[in-house]
Design goal:
This protein is an alpha/beta fold. Helices cover 42% and strands 18% of the residues. The protein has helices spanning 23-34, 59-66, 83-94, 114-125, 144-148, 175-179, 195-205, 229-250, 256-281, 283-303; strands at 9-19, 41-51, 72-77, 100-104, 108-110, 129-131, 134-137, 162-163, 170-174, 210-212, 218-221. It is globular, with a radius of gyration of 20 Å.
């Protein structure tokens, strides 16, 4: 595929969506996919929705939206509960018929140029994986500390930056990446989260190039049930566990458990030291430093073999 000589990029692309009991959010996403726009692309696009609800709660939405979509939509039910089970099912359903697989979350919407920007970045940088930004949209009821502290802001980088991991909330992956692995998303992390970061860390270690683009924008709707201190600290605790689990599993250095343990203590101590600063400088900083402690405690819990099954609770139903 090339842009040379005015040729249009031609490729087969599958947009993969994993969902569970959030049909209203899923419908918003599918509606945003209806109006994707292209100026340099000639893509054969399919949408693969994997419903991780054995009762098929998103089937009706998919059937209704399918009539207005300009692309083919395939709907599957994955009865084994857990995000990696659903992600792996989506890859299995799409891998043999497509050049690129694109993941986007069911609580997001995408800009009209989203897919084109992912594809153009892949061409520009000869990337195996292209990750893009997710802009968090807070509910009107969100507390001020959440806004001032940018608590829900996702990582972002300069366009063209090569990163060593990414999430599956906005990412394009060349099909050859998946065919190079016997196993994809770790099903031991069924309800704890983090299987996407772990997979893409493995992808980076294998020598594949993961590139960041700042133009392929997805927008995430934050439910009111998440805009509170309790949920924020639990999320950081879970991320501490997930990241430590990956570090131990994938480390190429000696004594990875000792390294994780030292970092865990460091995060907790840093948070404790900075908490008084937060008390003096504002609630947003207080929450920020409390997150350090939660993250460190999560890393320590991982050393004891514990997982926190965050995704037993579904937000945004």
């Amino acid at each position: 595929m090339s842009l040379e000589g005015g040729k249009r990029i031609r490729a087969r692309v599958a947009i993969l969506v994993v969902t569970r009991q959030r049909p209203a959010m899923l419908e918003k996403l599918l509606k945003s996919l209806e109006v994707l726009s292209f100026s340099t692309l000639a893509l054969d696009i399919t949408i693969v929705v994997v419903d991780n609800d054995p009762n098929g709660s998103s089937g009706e939405v998919c059937a209704r939206v399918n009539d207005s979509l300009p692309y083919r939509l395939f709907y599957f039910i994955e009865s084994q509960i857990g995000i990696p089970f659903a992600r792996n099912r989506a890859v299995r359903e799409a891998i043999n018929e497509n050049d690129y697989l694109v993941f986007v979350d069911d609580d997001e919407t995408v800009d009209p140029s989203w897919l084109e920007e992912l594809m153009l970045a892949q061409q520009q940088y000869s990337a195996d994986v292209v990750a893009g930004p997710v802009v968090s949209l807070l509910p009107s009821s969100a507390p001020e500390w959440a806004r001032a502290g940018k608590i829900f802001q996702h990582p972002s980088f300069v366009a063209g930056t090569q990163v060593h991991w990414c999430a599956s909330n906005n990412v394009l992956v060349s099909a050859h990446v998946f065919t190079s692995f016997d196993e994809w998303f770790d099903e031991r992390l069924a309800l704890s989260g983090g299987s996407d970061r772990q997979f893409f860390e493995r992808v980076s270690q294998r020598g594949f190039k993961i590139i960041w683009t700042d133009k392929a924008i997805a927008r995430e709707e934050i439910p009111a049930s998440r805009a509170n201190i309790r949920w924020v600290l639990k999320r950081m605790y879970r991320q501490g566990i997930s990241n430590a689990f990956s570090d131990i599993e994938l480390s190429r250095r000696r004594y990875p458990r000792i390294r994780v343990g030292v970092r865990a203590v460091g995060w907790v101590m840093l948070g404790i030291v900075l908490l008084p600063v937060g008390l003096l400088t504002g609630s947003h900083r207080l929450v920020h430093y409390a997150r350090y402690i939660a993250y460190g405690l999560g890393q320590w819990s991982a050393l004891r073999g514990r997982l926190y099954n965050e995704y037993t609770v579904i937000h945004g139903q």
